[in-house]
Each structure stands twice: as structure tokens, then as C-alpha cells.
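Record format v2
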Amino acid sequence: MNNIVFLIMRRMRLLLLTLVVVYAVSVLGMTLIPGRDGDGNVWYMDIFHAFYFVSFMSTTIRFGEIPYEFSDAQRLWVTFSLYLTVISWLYAIGTIITLLQDKLFQRAIAERLFARRVRRMREPFYLVCGYGETGETLVRSFTEHGQHVAVLDRDEARISQIQLQNLRDYVPALAADARVPLHLQEAGLRHRDCAGVVAVTDDNETNLKIAITSKLLHPEIQVIARGPGRGRGEYGLFRHRPDHRSLRNLLPLPGQGLADTLPVPAQPLARRRGGRGPGEPLYPPRDGLWLVCGYGRFGKVVAELFRHEGIPAVVVEERPDITGEPPTGYVHGRGTEAETLIEAGIQEAVGIVAGTDDDTNNLSVVMTARELRPDLFVTLRQNDTGNNDLVRAVGADMVMHPSAIVAEQIRILAGHPLLAEFFVLAGQRPNAWACELVSRLSAMVSRHVPVVSEIRLDAGIAPALVEAHERGEKLTLDELFRDPWGRARQLPCILLMLCREGNKIMMPASDTQIEPGDSLLLAGAHRGVARFRWNLAHNAALDYVRSGRVRPQGWLWRHVRFR
Amino acid sequence: MNPEKVVFGFFIILSLTLNFGFVLGEIDNPVHRHVYELFAVVVVNFIATILKFGDRSQMGAVLLATSLVAILQLFAATLVWALAVHVNGEGMTEVVTASIVSLSAGAMLANVISVILLIIETVMLRR
């Protein structure tokens, strides 16, 4: 607000001064020059009439000579002041138009509108800094899940794209440097309903600065920032835990880097939920040679992972002088020609990863590989969302779109703070534990990606449970996880973590008692989670799963039975 | 020496001195008033106000406020003059003269505050 007013006042100063002086001189001249009235007497115009005359003279040139016909001296002065006033008005209009077109002025207005829209948000929203590939995918994903977003990006072109993208929700966006705390505040950092800040700009320093600013100005909110991963390329994600005060808790999230989505089965649970969206879980072949085309950031992660899993892999790289030579040796070439692939051993291979940073090359690699070996398991790295149609047409067994993967992970994390805690704790468990959990989950969801849900047991979401607890009844996990449509069956979902007064219990035993105020992290089939919520909310369902009988619900029947 | 400060100070003080000159005299005596004097006061006050535009400091804001008050008072005074002389035709009676002078005296008070603020600012700069 202030910016705009001061900008206008500063720009208009000279213009207004000119107008005042010109008017004063013209009015003064009119009053000083003698005229003749109808009878030929000498007559002087008074200031009031002179001002009136000059006012309409300068704006509308078609005027009459009032109240009497002018003398020649007066006409001379009118001619002079006429040009003076008209020119100063032209100057005024020019100045105003220049002001309206001024970049600085327009930016000030855009900033003000943006700040006002964000201030008026009345539902929780996320602040996304950086609208590159990841930010764009993330914003789309957020809005499609009914979550409000505000966006900051330094690049004006990217910001204006938002209006063209047909998002489901209106997304306020501002082209401004997110490193400036003022801009973050305008974007709602201190807003009561700001649920979290996501920093996914292309610069790690900027992301860190955003994380620190958010931490200092609004310590309670969740912060997720992209930063340099430890040995995993640049895809590490960091999250700040709201219940800790120091910045050291910007923890790297285990199992949340890119490596989690790679084609290696039997990874811990964290690595199963790659955010590929609903679909079948894939089991790429493990016993045999893999080719990895491209040894950039992505290729390094892939090669490292294969080495870790003990799967033989051959790297194909065209410019090892830039990317660095892989320790295990490489085959020189782009991978788009048949000779290179044959030299790398495609005839014996079971799978290939087309992982360069150029989509055209990757598509070409896939097509060449398919021609040589139609039965090969093909993994394609997609860099640009714009190539969706081509990627779909080429029909790879698995498509990895790093930006999309990271975006989806951020969305899931942002919506489920407990999930991140779970990953931290799960990372400390042995691999066998994770494998068992994965197979249990896979059995429940069969062909679909598991649903994750976080439930806080309060009177709003679990009225039946709260009521039963008030009656003094004890509720165990085993009872609650029975199917309300047939209590002999278990619900197809698992309680991953129980959070009670800050204590986190991983995979609690089935005789654990559940109390109001607990937070639960569930995973499983959509059906299972939905019916579990039934058990929490409906008295009849809860009674049935506990005792097999349905207690009368109405006031009358309750009295008739229990008298 | 900053030429901007010279012009700025000149107009602020000129608006006070002109205003003072107009108010000086018996309050209800139209002979002591000349219309050109009021005209000059109005014009110089306008210029002084515009010169104060766009200063973001606290001092600048208060200076602008005093000038706006002066302009408001002077506008009322000229309106009374124009109504009495040209619209009603009652001319410069004692009542009319008194109200014009008291209104412009109010404007003078605002101008005095302006000048005091200007002096304070100058003194603070010299510290």
C-alpha cells in the first residue's frame, strides 16, 4: 500500500508543481490585464472569475469570452496561457501513462494484490518456493488433492505460466526473490493457516535460506526443503521437525531420495512407495546384467544402487571427461546406436536404464534397445513433463520422472507428518523387518499402491470411540481392526505407528489399548482404512466388532432391553 | 549546500510569511486585506505541499500533514470569500472578513508548526 502511494506521489511531484505554477501565472495575468465592458469602461477580472476561466480554458479550448468581449491585451495573454496550460496538461497525461506502464509500479501493485489474496486465505495452505519442474508438479498434485497453495518464484515467466495451466484451485503467485524474508511473509509465512513451507528452487543455498527464515519466523510450521543429498546426487529432501528448536534437525529423510524408486525390489517399505501413482507394483528382474546409459547425477545413483544390491551393471557414457569415470569401467558411446549397446552386452542383459539428461536421447536408447531385444526390461528417465505423450508412446516398463517423484513424495510427507517420523524409525530396523512389512502390505493391497492415512482420535473423527472410553470400556487394536461387515475378518490395513503424548510406538501389538487423543498412522488398502474409520465413528459398528452383537441405538429400545 | 533543501525551506517559510502578512491587521477590517495576498498564500501553500510529497520519513509525513491542514483552511477561506463577494453579493462585511481571517489564521498555525519541524530537522542534522 505505502509503496504505491509514495511511488505515485514522488512521480507526480514535478507534474503537480508545474500545473500549480502555470495556473497561478495564468490566473494572475488575467486579473492584471484591463478589459472593456459593454459600455467601454475599464474593467478588471477578479480572481474568482479568472480561475474559473483558466480552468475551463485549459481543458476545453472551445470557450467564450466572458463576461465581456476581451480586449486585445487580454487576448494576447489568453493565447499565451492557453499554450502554457495545454502543454502542461499534455505533460501531465504523459507522466500518468508512463507511471502506469512503469515496471516498478506494476510490480508494486502485483505484490500488493498477492499479499492481500494470501492474507484472505481462510483454509490451511502450503507455501511453495520455486516453480520449476518439481514445483510445478507439486502444485498440480496439491491442488488436485484439494490443498491450497501459494507460490513464489524469482522468474516472472514461470509465474505467468500458472494462469495458463488450468489448475483446479486458484493459486496466488508472485514473481519475487524468496530469499527476502519480506516476500516470504507476504506469501503467508506468518499466516495463521500456513501449514508448511516447501523450498524446491534450483539452488540449494536458496532452499536453505528459506528453511532458516521459515524456522525463525514461524517455528511451528512444517518445512520441507530440497538440498544436497549425501551421496545421492542432488535429490535429497530435508524436513524440519516442528517439535525441535534447533536447525540441526533439518534431517535428511532416509529413504526419501531418488534411490527409493529405482527398479530394485525388496527395498524397505520406504522404498516401495515411490509415488508412481496407482498401479501394479513392479518386480524388475534381478538375476542378470543391467545396462545404465548416462553417468550423470541420475546414472550415478542408479549405478551405486546396483553395486549395493550386488547386481552386475555396465555403464554407457559418451562424455566421461565431464561426468567422471565410473570405478567399474564403462563403454564409450551414447547408447543410441546399436553397436554401443551390443558392445556393452545387451544380448545377455535383462534390463536397461536410459538415464541421460536428454529426453530425446533416452527415447532413442529405448527404441534401439527394444529393436535388439524386445523382451528387455526397459526403464526410462523422463526430464521434461512436456514429453509425456512421447514417453507413453514408447512404452517403457518403468518411467522415472525425478521431478514428479520428488514432488509426490513432498506432497505425501506434507500431508502426513507422522510418516516422516516413521521413515526415520524404520531406517534403524533391519532389512528383514522391512521386507516382512512390505510383503504383508503387498498381500493386503494386491495390485494397488497402498494408501497412507493419519488419524488423530478426537470427538470429531472418532465419536464412538470417545463415547466408549467415557463409559470406561477398554478398546484394543485387535477389536478395532476387525471388519464391520463380518467381524471374523481382519481389515486389510496395518497400524504402522501409534503416537501418544509424544511417544512413538512402532507397529504396536494387537492387545495394545487405544485411547482418545492418540494419533495413528495407517497404511493399507483404501477399503481397509475407510472401514476402520467407520469403526471409530459409528456406535453400532464399534459394538458389533467388539462383541458381535448390536446394542439398541434408540432411547426407547435401550430402556426396554436393559430395564 | 543542497539546492533541494534551499527550495524546500524557501517555500515553507514563504508560505508562513505570506500567511502572516495576510492575517496581520484588525480581524474584521476588509481594508487590511487584499485578495492578491490570499491568492499568493494559496499558491505558495500548494507548492509547499507538493514539495513535501514522497518523503517516507516520519518527519516528512508530519510535514505533509501540516501542509494538508493549511490547504484545507485556506480552501475554506477562499470559498467564504468567493461566496460572499460573487455568489451572495453581500460583499466584504465585517463578519465575512473576520471568518476569512480566522480561517487563514488557522492555516498560519499549521504553517508555524511546519517551520518548527523544519527547524528541528535542521538542528538534528547539525548534531
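The longest helix of chain B spans residues 94-125.
Residues 30 and 97 of chain B are 6 Å apart (CA to CA).
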